[in-house]
Every structure is written in structure tokens, then in C-alpha cells.
Amino acid sequence: MASKKLLLLPGDGIGAEIMVEVEKQIAILNRHAAAGFETETALVGGCAYDAEGAPVSDATMALAQAADAVLLGAVGGPKWAGVAYEMRPEAGLLRLRKEMQLFANLRPAICYPALADASSLKREIVEGLDILIVRELTGGVYFGEPKEIVDLGNGQKRAIDTQVYDTYEIERIARTAFDLARTRRGKVTSMEKRNVMKSGLYWNEVVTRIHRDEYPDLTLEHELADAGGMKLVKAPKQFDVIVTDNLFGDMLSDIAAMLTGSLGMLPSASLGAADAKTGKRKALYEPVHGSAPDIAGTGKANPLAMIASLAMGLRYSFEMIREADALEAAVAETLEAGIRTGDVMAPGCTEVGTGEMGDQVAERF
Amino acid sequence: MASKKLLLLPGDGIGAEIMVEVEKQIAILNRHAAAGFETETALVGGCAYDAEGAPVSDATMALAQAADAVLLGAVGGPKWAGVAYEMRPEAGLLRLRKEMQLFANLRPAICYPALADASSLKREIVEGLDILIVRELTGGVYFGEPKEIVDLGNGQKRAIDTQVYDTYEIERIARTAFDLARTRRGKVTSMEKRNVMKSGLYWNEVVTRIHRDEYPDLTLEHELADAGGMKLVKAPKQFDVIVTDNLFGDMLSDIAAMLTGSLGMLPSASLGAADAKTGKRKALYEPVHGSAPDIAGTGKANPLAMIASLAMGLRYSFEMIREADALEAAVAETLEAGIRTGDVMAPGCTEVGTGEMGDQVAERF
Ligand SMILES: CC(C)[C@H](C(=O)O)[C@@H](O)C(=O)O
Ligand SMILES: CC(C)[C@H](C(=O)O)[C@@H](O)C(=O)O
């Protein structure tokens, strides 16, 4: 079997610690399933800025472009609060997303049954929740120009960001959402602010057309993003796939993640278009949670979202469906067995650190 | 006492029904407190478009500018889904906000003790919740130019919206938030996406400066809007006043409202700057909820948010603090007595319609 190249970018904060636990699972895949994974590690974020003078170096970009998949921990932290805008840790992540053209960000919001009580929502509202947020990731206000602060010369400055969406960008993310809905419960909810934004109006129009022309067998609903956010909080189980733009996706996917009570458990996949020749997609997998600088280095971080991100990689980049299922089952079984890191500790459970949690999953994998 | 001019704009959907209940309370104020309110009624939203050809006519705009305060019900509904963008019902509301320069939108998110169980969140998370979202209302992506859909000529279109904030816009909303925090628990949390948006970066800078120079005795915290949204869902009681831009404010205030379980109970105030001569501020008061076209005309709508909006008007436009307190107490007592409209009905309570609810509040006022 040809070797599979994984680029590991642990990043800042707890990134390094949780990546170690992923490497344990990769070792198992290589040993028991002869998976042939080859890994390489590089810097991204604040640590890259400190060591290499940029939040992601050109050399690391080249490695990312050449890899079959990238696994990323997290970036950022108060240490770099004063760094110039272009050099801030997040700029490294944004460059990876943009230059690898990872336009489709898949964020499952799943409530692990063992963790339903960790949610701030009532158990019956979130138990069994399984929704998928499909967030556009290379467009919108994140990248549109002009994006600047200009001096107006009269003691006033003006800060500007630009939300831009072209037809093809909306078409491809809509198709991604419909394709995924077909493998699930067949329903897509598109969210925008068409009552206020021209981009929302046009988003609505394009998604509606793609549905009518290409996926008439599926269900499409539209929600204003504010009303959709309310429905997420009130009754999230009414949704299956939610498709939305970069900024609304940022907000809504974080809120959906928090609903589940399983934030430390949730992975994400960022995918590019399928290559016309090879059919391969560029891909980056990362947890939904951040770099948690407050607990970095204490061995308390929950590695499960990072491990679940590897499972998404097995599924979407390597078609190793059986292995992905097995790894996800190992995570769920570890939780069922009452093994918990501090963030999701509950009465009657056993509290473990980062390394022990990785070992427990590895044993069941 | 000089007469006080109120412009009533019931709008679409349930707007007319709930405005009737407000008129009952105004009648009491005039009868028992010789308040001297004079009311006039005009159209806004879809009904204005149908009858007058625009979602708000120039004549209505003139009435609004001349009034001491405007009370608005709600606008919009599926009936006008096909109307041209410039003529949609929401355009009427946006024109009122912009031309009256109502830059400060105050949205209290209060959990009425009697309704804590109506929340999808656990009782202990929301019981006693009392936060205030201060949303910038006349700037940002709602009004920035360019705002358009352009034909690129190659089968592609491009949709553009522009987020714009000038120094003075951020300064005045920051001051509003700090002034309000001083009358509360003294803490302001500013939310933006400084890690992605230049407007967020600049917002952060200006709010920080206003705090340092003018309100050093108060507490200021900063949150990224996505992380702030998560914290709202997880532990909303950590906040006091939240200050944020127009679009984030739209999302975050709706989510905060939904947390309380009291959506049908929540009012809002939109205020302009104090006039240099008279000290008077232009003002518009409206419920946070929408026009609920599905139940319009059935007599089931909950009028309490609309009545609570009048209470905010008494407080902020007329300095009738005692009357505002009394009206808010009447609302709370009605709920404590187990009187409920269908949306917040609970076992052991008495279900009433819109008119009966208004009467029950009037009795206790
Ligand atoms: C780190 C930051 C730039 C990023 C974003 O805003 O996209 C993060 O919040 C996310 O959701 O992946
Ligand atoms: C009706 C709509 C234009 C409005 C907004 O987006 O501001 C509403 O959602 C609100 O929050 O008042």
C-alpha cells in the first residue's frame, strides 16, 4: 500500500499535548492495519512566529500542500496579543485554509450520550443530537478586500471589512451540503441574513437554484441567521445539515458545539475540491476547541476532539471507513466506561490526564 | 404637564393585536397619572408597502421624527417574500433606525423567575439572569457601501456587503454601554472578531481607550464574538453589559433572549444622541420577537414584550421611573399569578388570549 503522508501541526497552547495522543493512534493503525502513515511535524501559529518569524512559513505551506492530510491542534494565546495583525497566530491558520483552498468546513455537533448532563441545556433537548454544520471557509468577510483601517485626517479613522461571495463559491458549498445530507437524513437548512445583506439575498438564491436543479429529492429550508441561532438553542434536533457562510458559520458552529456539552470532543474537517485527475481533496482536520493556554502544559487537556479529528481524516481523506468507525467507537466506549478528563468530569467517573485518556482510547481501538 | 407625543407603528403580523394592549396601559397612565400621552398611529413594514407603496412613507418618517417616542410592533412576513429588496418590510424599520440616528439598541435579557422552566437551559443556569446587550444599530454591515450584487459578465455574479465603523460610532456606543453599566453591576464585556476583522481590531482599540480615559473605575473585558456566544450559552450569568456591533448584536441578543425562555417577554429600546439644547433623545421601543405571522389574527399573541417596551419608554424617554417600575411589576405579578399566553403556558397555569393578558396587566398596574 502506498504511503500516506500526514503533516502534524500541533500549534500553540495544548496543541502539542493533544497531538501526542493522536500519534499513539496512528502508531496503532500502522502496526495493526499496516496503514502506512508517514508523519512529519511543523510549526504553526504563535510558536511559528517566535521560531520562524511568521505564523506559517513558506516551507510549512509547501509541506501542507504536498501532504495527503494535515492535522492541526490549535493556534493563538495571550502571549501574542501585541503582535502585528499580519503576524498574529490566526493568520497562519487562515493562510493554510485560503492557499489550500479548503472551502468546506464540516463541523459535526454530536451529543455523546455519556456527556449529555455536561450540557447547560436540559438533557431531553440535546440527548441524541447529531447535526452537521457545513461552513464556507475561504470566502466572505474573512478574506474580502478592502480590509483596512484608514485615517480620515479629521481625527477620525475608518475600519472596513468586506463580505464578498461569488456564484461559484456558493454553488460548491451548497453541493457539499446536499451531498452530505444525502448520506444523512436528507435535510439542509441554509442560514443567512437576506433581509439585511445582499450577500444573504444572493446566497439564498443560489442555494435555492442548486436544490431545484440538482437535488430536488432532498429537503431545503431557509432561516435568517439570527432566528436560526435561536432555534439551535431552543430545539436543535430539528436540524440535520446547516449550510452557512464563513462568519455565521463561525458563530453558529461554536454555539452548536457548546449545546452538546461535548466541546472538548468535537472535531472538524476542512476540505478542498476533488482534483480533476486524481479525485483527491486537500484536507485539514482540527478540533473545534481552541488552544486553552490556561491549562497548557498541565497534562489536563482533553485529547478526544483531536483524536476524533483523526477519525474524520480516516473517513474523508483515506476512505478508511472501518478504521474511522472503530476509532470513534473507541472514543465513545472510553466515555461510557466513565473515563473523563477534568473538563467533563462527573460524579462517579474516573478523572484522568491527557496521556492516560489517549492510552485508554488506544486500548479500545 | 406638556403633552407627550407617542407614535404607534403596529406593523405586520401580530403587531396590531399587541399594540392594542399597550394602548390600554397608556389609557391608564392618562387617567390615573394625568400623564398627558397623545397617540397617533401609522403604518410600517409590509402593510405600509401594500397601502402606501413603501415600507415607511415620508409622511410617517416625519411623524416619527416629531414624536417624543415611537412604539413599534414588528415587521415582515412570508406575504412579502417576493417584494424587491428596497421595498421589503425590514427596509422600513432600517430607515427609521438610520434616519432617526438610533445608534444604541438596548436589549435586556431577563429571566422572569416564573418562566425559568420555559427555557431550554437548566433552571440553575438561567434563573435570576439579568444582562443587558448594547448593540450598535446604525452602522456596520447593515448600512455600509458598497452593498450590491454585480454581474461579472462570465456567468458569475458577485454579492458584496461592507462592514464600516468610524471612530465616533464606536466611541458613542462604548460610552452608552459604560454609562449603563454604572447603573448596574459595573462590568462591560466587548465582543468582536479582532482576530479576523479589521473593524474588530479597531473596535477593541477604541473601547479600550474610552474605558481607560473615561471609565477607569468600571471593569472592561473582551471576548471574541464566537467564544462570547459560547459563554452566553454555557454560563450567561457571568455577564452584566455586553457591547457589540450591529450584526454580532443581532445574533447575540437573539440567542441571549432565547436562553431566558422569556422571548415573548423581552422589550428593546433604540436611542439616539441627546440633543445639545433640549437633552432629549430620539427613541423607538419594540419587542425583540418578530411578527409571528403564523398566529396573527388568532388572539393568541403574547403582548408582554410590547407592554414591557412601553415601560422602557417611560424610563428612558419620559423619566417616569415610578410608572416604569409599576408597569414592570404588573407584568411580573401577572406571571406570578399563573396567567399565561400559549407560548409560555405551563402545568397549573391559566391560559389566556392577548386581550385578557393585557387586561390582567392593566388590573395590576
Ligand atoms: C482562530 C480563528 C481565526 C478561527 C475562525 O474565526 O475561523 C476559529 O474561531 C475557528 O472557528 O476555526
Ligand atoms: C427585522 C430585522 C431587519 C432586524 C435586524 O436584523 O436588525 C431584527 O432581526 C432585529 O434584530 O431587530
TrEMBL record, chains A, B:
Protein name: 3-isopropylmalate dehydrogenase
Catalytic activity: (2R,3S)-3-isopropylmalate + NAD(+) = 4-methyl-2-oxopentanoate + CO2 + NADH
Associated pathway: Amino-acid biosynthesis; L-leucine biosynthesis; L-leucine from 3-methyl-2-oxobutanoate: step 3/4
Family: Belongs to the isocitrate and isopropylmalate dehydrogenases family. LeuB type 1 subfamily.
Isopropylmalate dehydrogenase-like domain ranges (all copies): 5-361
Source species: Jiella sonneratiae
Site (Important for catalysis): 142, 193
Binding site for NAD(+): 77-90, 290-302
Binding site for substrate: 97, 107, 135, 226
Gene3D superfamilies assigned to the protein according to its UniProt record, in alphabetical order: Isopropylmalate Dehydrogenase
Free-text comment on the cofactor: Binds 1 Mg(2+) or Mn(2+) ion per subunit.
Cofactor: Mg(2+); Mn(2+)
Positions that bind Mg(2+): 226, 250, 254
Enzyme class at the top of the EC tree: oxidoreductase
The UniProt record lists the keyword Glycoprotein: no
Oligomeric and partner information: Homodimer.
Leader sequence segment: none
InterPro entries for this protein: IsoCit/isopropylmalate_DH_CS, IsoPropMal-DH-like_dom, Isopropylmalate_DH
Compartments, as annotated in UniProt: Cytoplasm
Top-level division of the source organism's lineage: Bacteria
NCBIfam families: leuB (TIGR00169)
Claim: Cytoplasm is one of the keywords in the record: yes
Keyword tags: Amino-acid biosynthesis, Branched-chain amino acid biosynthesis, Cytoplasm, Leucine biosynthesis, Magnesium, Manganese, Metal-binding, NAD, Oxidoreductase
